[in-house]
Amino acid sequence: MGNIYDLNHRRDAEVKAAGWLARLDNEEPLTPKEHSELCIWLNSSTEHRDALKALARFSGQANILTELSIPLEPRQGGIGNFIAAGFSWAGFRGVTTAVVFCCLGVVLGFSQWGGDEFGISSPMVSGNGVYQTRVGEQNAIRLADGSVIELNTDSHIQVDYSAQNRAVKLLRGEAHFSVSKDKSRPFEVSAGQGMVRAVGTAFAVRFDRQALEITVTEGEVALAELPIVASSTSLAEDQSLNAELGDATNKTLGNPVAAALVEGQSAVFKPHSPTPVPEGILSLDKDDLQKQMAWRSGMLLFTGEPLSEVIDEINRYTALAIEIADPDIGDIRIGGQFNISDIDVILNVLDAKFNVGVIYIDENNIQLAAKQNNN
Asked: Same structural domain for residues 84 and 34?
């Protein structure tokens, strides 16, 4: 019976792979929702990845996978060398940013997606639930209506999903939401005293306790302020309060809409401040949008940011404490792309190409300083 199951399972994978290959061969690019679905499907089983690659070879459509940065054969030297090879050391010591889709991280063996403790044991979630990722992890959750929630590193959400309600409380971190259309049930994401409401769209929310950073990748969203209920004195208290008030705060749009964002726009939202959108609404070009959403691919992209900002971002994805001990190197401009799981790669690059010494204080602490020339 086991062999029959395996054979049927393999046949199902081949049928699904054929469907995806036909879709990829279409002139129309994947929608964000399809993009997420493909990543989830590829990541759920090595058999799925093997079926897609085998069928692409057999049908002579391997170029499609190449265009999506899905390698058909492992590159020599492993993923670390592959990513490091993408660096260029001209100009401001930066690189030309490449478009990297989430399938790259999946097919190369991006290990952060999944995990029994914080992962999803079934493809559907239809009801209340609390989901979180540890530092360095990403994970995806599919709701019963087809909506997909992608959690970034060190993130924590509470889902309130029912026949009448589609609401998510972002307690900490960052998430991307690909929302299936349902005009009778707007999709509401609240964080702190702010709320984002959408019907059928895709957007990301990053919450740092003082503000929400919202980026719309498809469609349109509305921003609104929730009533101020109480102030918290600790993260634990804040999470407890949010959990208790989740139902009440998510059932109303709250105060009048503070702003509306459309595809390609981003804003920092500070509810109940004199200027709720203090930095205004930014319009992002395609490269900037891809850069902001690179974490969904298991990647970090830098295009000339100072080292101080690069290290702040890297520290979000590692339990290591990386500190710039020499202020003179903080303004060095960094460019490149690398896998979130390969922190050692960027440290090696800083040492080899930017004259930045990497000092291992102990197993948990690293300091960066300018290399001393020993002549």
From this structure: yes
Residue 163 domain-assigned (yes or no): yes
Q: What is the pLDDT of residue 188?
A: 95
3-state secondary structure of 20: helix
Residues 6+ apart with CB under 8 A from 181: 199, 200
Query: Model confidence over 195-220: pLDDT tens digits?
Result: 999 988 999 999 987 899 999 999 99
Cα gap 293→250, rounded to integer Å: 26
DSSP code at position 296: G
Chain-centre distance for alpha carbon 346? 19
| Structural domain for 86, as ranges | 2-106
| pLDDT, tens digit, 9 for 90 and up, residues 18-49 | 888 777 777 677 776 777 678 777 766 667 77
Residues in Cβ contact with 253 at an 8 Å cutoff, skipping those fewer than 6 apart: 188, 195, 197, 222, 224
Same structural domain, 133 and 101: no
Domain count, the chain: 3
> Containing H/E element for 81?
helix 78-84
Q: Give residue for tokens 């540890």.
A: 134
CA separation for the pair 122, 261 (Å, rounded): 33
Residues 6+ apart with CB under 8 A from 180: 33, 143, 145, 146, 147, 200
Distances in whole angstroms, Cα of residue 13 to Cα of each of 19, 90, 111: 10, 45, 21
Q: Coil, helix or strand for 160?
A: strand
Q: Angle formed by the axes of helices 46-58 and 32-44, to 10°?
A: 110
The arithmetic mean of pLDDT across residues 290-299, rounded, is 90
The pTM of this model reads 0.64
